[in-house]
Structures are given as structure tokens and as C-alpha cells.
Amino acid sequence: MKRKAKLKAVLINPETETVQDVEIEHSLEALQKAVDGYIETVSFPQGHVMIVNEEGTFRPNFKTFEILGAIIHGPALTVGMGSSDFINTKIKAVTVEKLIAWNY
């Protein structure tokens, strides 16, 4: 049985106002589960990408946060971006947490 690859990411949960380093299965299903729905990406400097819920702005029950000028609705994952796929992030939760304003 082939072992599924893991992806190092930072999980941002505005519901609990927590930011944590995680390892998540590197699959579409796992990414969708982490953000509670279909995914889309928001690009950030230095090769980082935030994976968010593509319908987050239409879900009034999602809490929000602001990071680097972007308002994000619902949970998000910060990962790195390779030439054509997500890669392990090099940024840590403690750094991301300093950039967040909760319930924006």
C-alpha cells in the first residue's frame, strides 16, 4: 500500500482564533476538508499561497480575518507554491499569527 504524501502547512481557524503548524495529506479531498468546501487560492509574497473556501464570502456563518490586506472568510491553509503544485510552507504559525486581525 502506497503511503500518501504529507504537506506542511499553517492552519488558520477564525472560529477558534487559532493558528497552528500542521501536516495534512497532500490531496484535494484533505484540502477541501480543511477549509470546509471547494478550494481557491490567494497569492501572497515570497511564494506563499493561502488555500481558502471558494464560497466563503457567501457563507454568513464563517468568521473572518484580515491578513496582508486580504479579508478571508472561514478557515484557511498557508502553503508554499512550486512551479505547478503546492509544496511545504517554510513560514511558521507564530509568524502568520502576527499578521492576522481577527473578525475583520
Characterize the structure shown.
There is one protein chain. This protein is globular. The longest helix has 8 residues, at 28-35. The protein has one domain (6-102). The protein is 12% helix and 45% strand. The model has no long low-confidence stretch (mean pLDDT 91). The protein is mostly beta strands and 104 residues long. Strand 5 (64-67) and strand 6 form a beta hairpin. The protein starts with 5 loop residues before the first strand and ends with a strand.
User: How would a textbook summarize the main sheet?
Assistant: 6 strands, antiparallel
Structural class label: mainly beta
Q: What is the average per-residue confidence, as pLDDT, rounded to a whole number?
A: 91
Strand content: over 45%
Give the low-confidence spans: none
Envelope shape: globular
Write the layout of secondary structure elements.
Layout (H helix, E strand, L loop, with lengths): L5 E8 L4 E8 L2 H8 L3 E6 L3 E6 L10 E4 L2 E4 L2 E6 L4 E2 L5 H5 L2 E3 L2
Antiparallel strand pairs: 1-2, 1-7, 3-4, 4-7, 5-6, 5-9, 7-8
